[in-house]
Amino acid sequence: MRASVQSRVFQMMSQILGYPSRIGPGNGCAPQMGRAFSASSSLGERKQDIFSSLGLGTYDGASGMMLRQECEKSEIAGRFMDRHSPAVLLLKNQCGVGRSKRMEISTNNQQQEESLPTVYAHNRLISVLMEGGYHEEAYHIYQDMLLETCKPDSHTYVRLIMGFCRAGRIEEAYGIFQDMKNQNCESKGIVYNAMIHAVGTAGLVSEALKLLDEMTEADCSPDTWTYNSVIHSLGKVGDVNHALRLLETMHVNGCNPDVITYNSLISSLGKCGRVVEACKLYEGMVEKGCLPDVVTYNTLIPVLCKAGEFSAALNLFKFMQSVGCRPDVFTYSSLVVGLCRADRVDDALRLSSQMTLSGCSPNTVTFNSWLDGLCKEGRVREAQVLYQKMLTLGYIPDVITFSILIDAFCKSGEYLEEAFKLLKLIVKKPDTVDVRTRDIIHNSFMRVGMMKQAKRIMRNARHKRVRLQNQAGDVKHM
Questions:
Q1: Three-state SS for 43?
Q2: pTM check: above 0.85
Q3: Distance between CA 66 and CA 303 in Å, rounded?
Q4: Is residue 348 a contact partner of residue 371, using CB atoms and an 8 Å limit?
């Protein structure tokens, strides 16, 4: 069985690298493997990780030393030689030819048993394969474990279930889950949690609820993590009432909700417009001794702003600071967006100085909100100054920034030259322009009778892109 695992590893390495002939096991191929490592520098970073983890994991002893020397000659070696890297962990955990040869000459049963690859080594290999999209190969490693004396543990099942579910292969994940129940695996709760989280993330909320009931019937008590997964899944589909009932179930079963539980419920209530209930839940969590974190405030403040409760939002903002919870850029941006939409642009701009004092830098979203607020009030000159400040500070405008300013510049009639400059910047990145932005730009120039000039700029940019693409194609085929 050991040889079959090694054979699969080498086959996968050959596939990743695109070698016409397979890399094979054996002490004599360390130089060959080293050259393969050098060639793998042309792969993407993720494939390099997988390739190196597989490669170093198949060698130890003298063979491993030879391979290490060869690898050190390659450009990518430094990234994988760290003693905490997956590759070295695999190397240390006995997935190698060196161990296999020691097994052949060993006469001591205990030594033979110690030489077998550990569950941890198999689990790490399964993780590497799953992360790289090699799901079938990971499943074959798992099947080998069932046939060998290396019994899968709860972590094996979790890695397989999560890997298949991330790939949208729910049926395979369920198959692994059924295997776990048949194998009488210890620590079933961990595997149930993984399965519930996976199906919930996939939007299969009814399946998550069934698993929750099944978990209870199997005398496997759900914990806070279990309930949080189901509550979050219910919130995503808008079934807040069911999520609130689960909160009551947690209290009845003596399972204490944590800040994640409350944050999820507050968010779900806010999305449904149930602002009063969201505020009451926030007060309830504080009364029960569950301290809100920055996510709690970042969840509730936008809800209050959207409901027009700006005084309550600002009071909550002040309160979070008074209890030592530091606002982040999302907190400030939420307030800026809310205040600007309520035509309180000056209040929103005053937050800029507070951000500077607290050491919190604004982001593009924050600047876009300030710019939009100023432009809607007709303060185009101030918006232009703020835009220049944004550039000076090193922030990169996005297509929303440009559409806000182009619309304002064209409406004012005084900044048409600036509008055309921004249009020339936009057409350099056509993939970032959506239908709504295109309509704004079109209507802005149409309004001032400048559509012909705008179309000329867009047409010239398109011709230039085609010319550059053709040139790149010619170079590629030389």
A1: coil
A2: no
A3: 61
A4: no
Pick the closest to residue 364 from 409, 404, 402, 398 (CA basis): 398
Rounded alpha-carbon distances, angstroms, from residue 408 to 112, 169, 456: 77, 49, 21
Task: Give the count of beta carbons closer than 10 Å to the beta carbon of residue 119.
Answer: 16
C-beta neighbour count of 148 within 10 angstroms: 15
Both tokens of residue 196?
């519930």
| 348, 370 Cβ separation under 8 angstroms | yes
Which residue, chain included where needed, has tokens 């009071």?
A: 315
Please give the Cα distance from 469 to 299 (Å, whole number). Answer: 45
Fill in the amino acid letter for 278.
A
Alpha-carbon distance of 186 to 153, in angstroms, equals 7
d(C-alpha 34, C-alpha 96), whole Å: 16
Kindly give the confidence (pLDDT) of every residue in the chain, 478 residues in length, as a single tens digit, with 9 standing for 90 and above. Answer: 344 444 555 555 555 445 444 444 444 444 555 555 555 455 455 444 554 554 444 444 444 444 455 444 444 444 443 433 444 344 333 333 333 333 333 334 444 444 445 787 788 878 877 887 888 888 888 888 888 777 888 888 888 988 888 888 888 888 888 888 777 766 778 888 888 988 898 888 999 999 999 888 877 889 999 999 999 999 999 999 999 999 999 999 999 999 999 999 999 999 999 999 999 999 999 999 999 999 999 999 999 999 999 999 999 999 999 999 999 999 999 999 999 989 999 999 999 989 988 889 999 999 999 999 999 999 999 999 999 999 999 998 888 998 899 889 888 878 788 877 887 777 776 666 667 777 777 777 777 677 767 676 666 656 555 555 555 554 444 5
**Domain edges within the chain:** 1-144
Residue 41, number of CB atoms within 10 A of its CB: 11
First to last CA, the chain: 48
Q: In terms of C-beta density within 10 A (0-12 exposed, 13-18 middle, 19 or more buried), how is residue 288 classed?
A: exposed
User: CB-based contacts of 42: which residues, under 8 Å, 6+ apart?
Assistant: none
**Burial of residue 75, with CB atoms counted within 10 A of its CB: 0-12 exposed, 13-18 middle, 19 or more buried:** exposed
